[in-house]
Specification:
The protein is 32% helix and 28% strand. The protein has helices spanning 14-25, 44-47, 74-78, 103-107, 146-153, 172-178, 192-207, 225-232, 245-252, 264-287, and strands at 2-7, 31-35, 50-64, 84-87, 90-93, 113-128, 131-138, 161-168, 183-188, 212-219, 237-242. The protein starts with a strand and ends in a 17-residue tail after the last helix.
Length: 304
């Protein structure tokens, strides 16, 4: 079971939901946690892992031999990202634009281009109690998070519950985090900004074929438009977390509220059971040639 916790809007509470869900499951399930927000991994603040090892993440960038190159320009013509350019008898490589696809070396007619490794970040591995913990960390100034997320996801196991804490937004890193997941747990807040970005997240998840459910964080502020939208789209609201000062104070001190407030472990366990059931329904429907993609008639909520 692979669950990606995502949110179009940054600061909505996806890390809060992802970490508390992992903690709720740790005694009854074999759980692994992947912090895919590689530009600013912060799940470790709450799960407090002991890191045991790390590994670099590299991409391949071109290195041109001036002795062999004929300056034909085929490499720069082929590059979709303008990462290599030919000017007269000069070839310039822009590593910050390179996506490491290797096309330039493939099209070179004289084999003048070799590839070398460029480190863009690393993956750290450890244990957070009973939870296997992995996080990616992009080097400051590097523009591409997706290769790190792709490498990070190779750590997932098919016989475990894998919880992925996605980056915010709806760009390529989010799509990579969602790809291959059994379920997208979308966290939002009942505000116009929350609704706007929830709609974008729903569109992305449905486009790549991942069923969705919603968690409303800071419930009690804003308006009812998020719930109205979910009802119109038949998207299940699986949990509501109130706009509570005590929860906020615990969060600001790096303490998961599940460990301090009564009843929340049971609510997150119920959340997982609902996600498990909805994902199974989607698999069964897909095998029959159809798809619900989060369009369950049932909308369940949980209040404190």
């Amino acid at each position: 079971m692979q669950i990606t916790v995502s949110a179009g809007k940054g600061g909505t509470g996806k890390t809060t939901v992802a970490t508390n869900l992992a903690l709720a499951l740790r005694k009854e399930y074999d759980v692994e946690f992947l912090d895919c927000d590689v530009e600013e991994p912060d799940a470790g603040i709450f799960l407090k892992p002991d890191f045991e090892s790390s590994q670099p993440v590299n991409i391949k960038i071109p290195e041109v031999s001036d002795e062999i190159c004929t300056y034909c320009g085929q490499c720069s013509d082929a590059c979709e990202f303008n990462a290599i350019a030919t000017f007269g008898e000069n070839v310039l490589v822009y590593p910050e634009l390179c996506h490491g696809c290797g096309l330039c070396s493939l099209v070179c007619p004289v084999d003048a281009i070799k590839e070398k490794d460029k480190k863009i970040g690393e993956i750290r591995m450890g244990k957070a109690g009973a939870i296997d913990y992995y996080e990616g960390d992009l080097i400051v100034g590097e523009p591409m998070a997706t290769p790190i997320i792709k490498e990070l996801k190779k750590k997932t196991s098919h016989d475990r519950v894998s919880i992925l804490d996605s980056p915010p937004g709806t760009a390529c890193p989010v799509i990579e985090s969602l790809h291959g997941s059994d379920f997208a747990l979308l966290v939002t807040e009942p505000t116009p900004f929350g609704l706007h970005d929830l709609k974008l997240s729903v569109d992305v998840a449905r486009e790549i074929g991942v069923p969705v459910g919603v968690v409303i964080n800071r419930d009690g502020i804003g308006d009812a438009n998020v719930e109205r939208y979910c009802k119109e789209e038949n998207i299940p609201i699986l949990l509501k977390i109130p706009n509570d000062r005590e929860i906020a104070e615990l969060y600001s001190n790096g303490i998961p509220f599940l460990d301090r407030l009564d009843g929340w472990k049971e609510k997150f366990l119920q959340l997982f059971k609902r996600v498990e059931r909805l994902a199974e329904e989607e698999r069964e429907t897909s095998e029959k040639g159809g798809s619900n993609l989060g369009k369950s008639e049932e909308t369940q909520t949980s209040k404190p």
